[in-house]
Amino acid sequence: MAAEAAAAERGRKVVVAIDESDVSLYALRWALDTLFIPWAAGAPDHHHERPTSSLSQLTHLTLLHVQQPFHTYFFPSGPGPAAALYTPTSIIDSVKKAQEENTNALFARALRVCEDRMVKAVTMVMEGDPKDMICHAAEQINPDLVVVGSRGLGKVKRALLGSVSDYCAHHVKCAVLIVKPPPTHTHK
């Protein structure tokens, strides 16, 4: 009991991996509404009174975004094995600036979702393969829980492309929550 009280006192650490997909923002919303705020913003709870200190104050939320690295390519510029042309610095700078702008826009959307639910969050950007970087971030942060969205790849696509959520479930050394989006209903 003393260990549980100490853990509750220090708060819980939660990492939510986000990207540009609607699935990841759905996972963030689901995590906030389910894990952080048992009384969703504006929703009355007739069975319990709101606590004086909300879960959002006792939980440390990190929003993690992993960027794909920009690979510099070499192109032949003439005959012979010694001739090569590299990607100009202006193109590299342009791509990095676009990545930074996309990341800032993504975090703005995600932080707005957190603010709407009165949850404070910190942001973290890593570069590399999302599967590996989420695992690496979990080792650095040592969270109690990592939340990832599931795109719902079919068996064939998952086998060919791999699944970030499946990989994290098997390699992250803490609890991993995979949030699936709600089924979409199509009218025929």
Automatic annotation (TrEMBL):
Residues 12-180 form the UspA domain. Gene3D superfamilies: HUPs (3.40.50.620). SUPFAM superfamilies: Adenine nucleotide alpha hydrolases-like (SSF52402). InterPro entries: Rossmann-like_a/b/a_fold, Universal_stress_UspA, UspA. This is UspA domain-containing protein. It comes from Stephania yunnanensis.
